[in-house]
User: Fold this.
Amino acid sequence: KQEVTQIPAALSVPEGENLVLNCSFTDSAIYNLQWFRQDPGKGLTSLLLIQSSQREQTSGRLNASLDKSSGRSTLYIAASQPGDSATYLCAVRPQGGDKVIFGPGTSLSVIP
Amino acid sequence: DTGVSQDPRHKITKRGQNVTFRCDPISEHNRLYWYRQTLGQGPEFLTYFQNEAQLEKSRLLSDRFSAERPKGSFSTLEIQRTEQGDSAMYLCASSSNLNYEQYFGPGTRLTVT
Assistant:
């Protein structure tokens, strides 16, 4: 059974810092991994999608990496801004299936 | 296309009442997903459609829950005889077969009193 965890559960950093959010999954037989952002009371916004054959994806100040063999993905945020404050969730799609499993999220607060 | 939409955005109901939520996916997406999210948790998979066919249901989806996607476009999620434990955010997402990237709607927040 696939389980997804995210560490830390919460993170507070001063503006301008670079930071790394972690996502771990127990079953390496995945099709893809997706990172999302969620603002309080809102839906999820897709940030980056990494296919199982890829090692990383970049969008602006965001870089996501994937190491399938170790069951880990990281989301790197460069030069953090107060507008980056939100909950960040990772989600894993299994190979041959459509039941996407989410982690519990990391709540990020960027202090001006 | 304006993305995935959900209606209503908020619903307050009394225990025992039935409620129905609607989701309109991105028009060219053939896959549609329903999730439930409680405070401080990630979304939990409920069910999934490919076109009009419901292909997978979670054990979370009790007999009181039913979902339909009659013409392969919009979908409805109905909860019968609501209980206080049904209070949550109900999220809908859609994707295409191209890369299965999921796009989410704003969610429907259900409060059962």
About this structure: Chain B touches chain A through 29 residues (CB under 8 Å).
